[in-house]
Amino acid sequence: MSSKEHVCVLYGGNSDERAISIRSGKAIMEALVRQGVSVTGVDAKNGYLKELQTQKPDLIFIALHGKGGEDGEVQKCLDRLRIPYVGSTAQGSQRAFDKAKAKRIFKKQGIPTPKSVVLTQKNWKQKLAHLSPPIVIKPICNGSSIGITMVESVGQLAKAVESSCKQYSIVLAEQKVVGREFTVGILDGKALPVIELKPKHAFYDFEAKYTPGLTDYLVPAPISDQLKRTLQMLAERTHAALGLRDFSRVDFMVDSGENPYVLEANSIPGFTETSLLPKAARVAGLEFDQLCLKLLELAKRRLKGSLK
Ligand SMILES: Nc1ncnc2c1ncn2[C@@H]1O[C@H](COP(=O)(O)OP(=O)(O)O)[C@@H](O)[C@H]1O
Ligand SMILES: [Mg+2]
Q1: Ligand 1 pocket check: which of 17, 140, 174, 204 to mutate, most ligand atoms within 8 Å of Cβ?
Q2: Using the 8-state DSSP alphabet, how is residue 98 labeled?
Q3: What confidence tens digit (pLDDT) does each residue in 121-176 have?
Q4: Domain boundary pick from 175, 203, 221
Q5: Domain residues for 43?
Q6: Which end of the chain is more exposed for a tag (fewer CB within 10 A), N or C?
Q7: Domain of 42: which CATH number?
Q8: Other CB atoms closer than 10 Å to residue 125's CB: what's the count?
Q9: pTM assigned to the model
């Protein structure tokens, strides 16, 4: 980065993942300051348009997770302002954020993903007959495991689906995969080392994600070379199939027969120094500060519309 360029980190916002976005934004700003980049932060809680029009940054590092950040909204706005930003386009972000949309693309492209149905407040009663637990009920557009319910028996099904549909209007009921959990970060289209997640809870829920000590992270994951290659190849295919850019993180379950299933792709994964993608990058030899700089360099290639 040349010292004359000014970078703005957008963080916070008002999604369910605000607290995590503040942590990601702070970590990115500290790294960029350490590297001598001219950087300011804008908390997107009450909008950001006026602030950006005043500051006129050359580049933006979006550290917003969830709604407003990962769903294409901020990207659309920055496209209108013609300010290049780190990460995926509005369209790519939308495809990844909407789990039903993403799964349709996975199915079309032969990327394995658990069987699922979309349930709405109107149709859930008719559709229940087609579901056999164990299944996972999840909001179509959310993250950080917020709103996820595991349904282990038929007896629990109606109540769980009804209350989830009431809260979210539209939800995904997905076959539960019993097995091991992995995640693979992508940097500039290439897979980073595979991470295995071993939550001490029944699954990788919100607490297990953000409470130190509640999940063990093994990187590189203790798996065969073949499984490692398969997960990395599927992560790269998922990133490409959704049309993602610069970076992403793809979540997997693998059953006892070593069959992998893609759960989802995160277009702006957690970005503190101890978050998963930065952990994998470190194992690949890229420290957090260098990782932040590398992402800025990727966005910089798009300055003045040179490359998109
Ligand atoms: N089909 C599934 N089978 C088993 N576990 C699942 C399944 N779907 C989700 N989970 C568990 O729930 C967590 C969050 O689900 P995910 O689809 O990645 O949504 P989020 O966007 O909230 O991270 C996963 O990390 C995993 O532990
Ligand atoms: Mg996930």
Answers
A1: 204
A2: S
A3: 888 888 888 789 999 999 998 888 889 999 999 999 989 999 999 999 899 999 99
A4: 175
A5: 6-87
A6: C
A7: 3.40.50.20
A8: 13
A9: 0.96
